[in-house]
Design brief:
By secondary structure, the protein is mainly beta. It has a domain at 78-143 and 178-341 and 608-617: TolB, C-terminal domain (Neuraminidase), CATH 2.120.10. The chain is built from two helices and 48 strands. The strands form twelve sheets. Strands 1-48-23-22 form a four-stranded antiparallel beta sheet, with no helix packed on it. Strands 2-3-4-5 form a four-stranded antiparallel beta sheet, with no helix packed on it. The longest helix is centred in the first third of the chain and has 22 residues, at 49-70.
């Protein structure tokens, strides 16, 4: 009896109250002592293992699908590149009508438009179509090119027919013109302003004005926006940035505010399907290189797997790529100018008043001579490393590794060491010393601030240096090589770019706004104003050998020229105009220097520019 009475109690306790519906007697109740008969509870069959596996797989698939839907598309990338031209001529732009390429080139000092097939090899010779013009845009119907032709003191705009019709001069003047997608309007630049007009140049109106020079406008595929570039001058260089504005003149804003300082992006165009914006970024540090980037234009209607709208780098150095033109037929095809960097040292010959080669077989910038005039140190192009050679180009020795980009080498007075700047990306700039015979470069100045413009004292016991111009509270400092201690030149707060005179008496330096040239007299122990000029008018100052004059390049007042100012005077004088020289920009801008005998030295741009076809993977 005890065993029988425990059965229902145990079932009830295990199954809960819902089990009572399944417990009953098979006979009418009676007072009999016999225990009621139990009908066994039905047992639910166990699901097969395959069912649980299927549920788990479905769950995993659902979770994976959710993550896949929410994940961005893979970034765009360069799949391959093919060289198209090989004529060696300087090039400004490349345009495409889907079957041919139209190049803006320079031949014997004249602008020409050349035509090549997309399938040409580098050995093919382009056909010449037009002279004295630069092509900026292809018509939406691919029937003509928009050209800018210099005329007197202004640029005229022309529509050059590709079907044999006569060129049409537009009723507008400006540069960098481009067509709207509907072909009924154009946009063009005039100095610091952006203009729009009818396609024939009539009804022109100023859309916006900015600080700087406007260039390379491009309409969005829907014609509602214009993106354009703005160039702003800096000390011995310039910056460029991309901006956007709606075609009604509203919504003006920078496209990549704060992305790079100083900015260097420009010259962008949308792909034919409008999904990506391809633009270029120029950087001079640690090496001078221009790279192509892609930014996805995420459509608002796309609910899943949206591309990342952050810029993605497509190319890298040492070859530069720029002025990219997306192919009108294929969204993943881009035509661009590929530049293999090269520089040639030239000097100004006062007798012939011409620029003549200084060194043969050397591609470099930032040249410095040993005091005895027998050795040179320079920064190689495009590697950006420090080299030492004899003046005739022999006995050359690379003094730094490829991973360390350098700038502004300076020989010690005894010719035993070379001071230079290390300008590696993401690191503070440091002044290092390396033996002229080779060895491991050594950092000699402690601190976490940028160290710029090393100059030796005439006796070689001290090095004067400054901060970067954009640093907070910059000052000029002196390192005592014997004690290892540094000290600030009294009164040098707010100054940079120091230059020690060869006789040791004076120190010249610039204000951080580039407008004031100051002179420190070590005998009098005080600073005095020497010259006040517009920003950019005093570039790369260098002393004459007798410490009487300070020479400098003027990049902003009138024509590019070399000027000088005499100690004790406050009026500079022009030495010569710098004309017809294509310059190569060094790590810190357009470099110039002097030979021991007083000739002014520059770097002629010997880079080769050819057209390349780039195949891109654009998810």
């Amino acid at each position: 009896m005890a065993t029988e009475s425990a059965g229902p109690s145990l079932l009830l306790s295990l199954l809960g109250s819902r089990a009572t519906c399944c417990y009953h007697s098979s006979m009418p109740r009676s007072n009999s002592a016999a225990a009621p008969a139990l009908i066994p509870l039905p047992v639910a069959p166990r699901p097969p293992v395959s069912l649980w596996v299927g549920i788990a797989a479905a769950s995993a698939l659902a979770v994976g699908t959710m993550f896949w839907v929410q994940s961005p598309l893979p970034p765009p990338k360069l799949a391959s590149r093919t060289q198209i031209t090989g004529d060696g001529l300087p090039k400004t732009s490349v345009l495409s009508d889907g079957s041919h390429l139209y190049l803006s080139e320079t031949l014997e000092g004249r602008h020409i438009i050349s035509k090549v097939s997309m399938n040409d090899s580098p050995s093919s010779r382009p056909g010449r179509l037009f002279t004295e013009g630069v092509g900026y845009a292809m018509a939406p119907d691919r029937s003509s090119l928009l050209l800018s032709v210099p005329e007197a003191s202004r640029d005229t705009l022309w529509a050059f027919s590709l079907t044999g019709a006569a060129p049409l001069r537009l009723q507008a003047t400006g540069r960098n013109a481009t067509w709207a997608p509907d072909g009924r309007h154009i946009a063009y630049a005039r100095n610091s302003t952006l203009w729009v007009a009818n396609s024939d140049g009539t009804n022109g109106r100023e859309l916006i004005a900015v600080e700087g020079t406007v260039f390379y406008p491009r309409f969005s595929p829907d014609g509602t926006r214009i993106r354009f570039s703005v160039s702003t001058p800096l000390q011995n260089s310039s910056t460029s940035s991309l901006w956007e504005v709606r075609t009604d003149g509203t919504g003006l804003h920078p496209l990549f505010k704060g992305w790079h300082e100083p900015p260097g992006e420009c010259c962008g165009s949308w792909t034919s399907d409008g999904r990506y914006f391809i633009f270029q970024l120029s950087q001079s540090r640690p090496a001078n290189v221009t790279t192509l980037w892609a930014m996805a234009e995420a459509p608002s209607s796309q609910l899943y797997r949206k591309p990342s709208t952050s810029p993605v780098q497509l190319t890298s150095g040492p070859m530069s790529f720029g002025m990219a033109t997306p192919d009108p037929n294929r969204s993943g095809k881009v035509w661009a100018l590929g530049v293999q960097p090269g520089g040639e040292f030239v000097k100004y010959d006062t007798a012939s008043k011409r620029l003549v080669p200084l060194l043969t077989g050397v591609s470099g910038t930032d040249l410095d001579f040993s005091r005895d005039g027998k050795w040179i140190a320079y920064v190689s192009i495009p590697q950006g490393t420090l080299w030492r050679c004899r003046i005739n180009g022999s006995d050359c020795l690379e003094l730094t590794s490829a991973s360390q980009h350098v700038a502004l080498p300076r020989w010690s007075p005894d010719g035993q060491k070379i001071a230079f700047m290390s300008v590696e990306t993401g690191k503070t700039w440091k002044i290092l010393l390396v033996p002229a015979t080779g060895g491991t470069p050594q950092q000699v100045i402690a601190g976490d601030r940028n160290q710029v413009d090393a100059n030796w004292s005439p006796d070689g016991t001290r090095i004067v240096f400054g901060d970067e111009w954009s640093a907070s509270n910059p000052a000029v400092q002196v390192l005592d090589l014997k004690t290892g201690r540094t000290s600030v030149i009294p009164g040098s707060q707010g100054l940079f770019s120091p230059r020690w005179s060869p006789d040791g008496r004076y120190l010249a330096a610039l204000s951080i706004d580039f407008t004031r040239l100051m002179l420190f007299d070590f005998q009098a122990k005080k600073w005095s104003p020497w010259l006040i000029e517009p920003a950019g008018a005093v570039s790369y100052p260098s002393w004459s050998a007798d410490s009487t004059y300070l020479y400098f390049e003027d990049l902003v007042t009138g024509k590019d020229s070399i000027r000088r100012i005499k100690v004790g005077k406050d009026k500079p004088e022009s030495v010569f105009l710098l004309e017809n020289l294509e310059r190569y920009p060094g790590p810190l801008g357009l470099w110039n220097g002097r030979t021991p005998d007083g000739a002014q030295v520059f770097v002629r741009d010997r880079s080769t520019q050819e057209v390349y076809g780039l195949d891109l993977d654009l998810p």
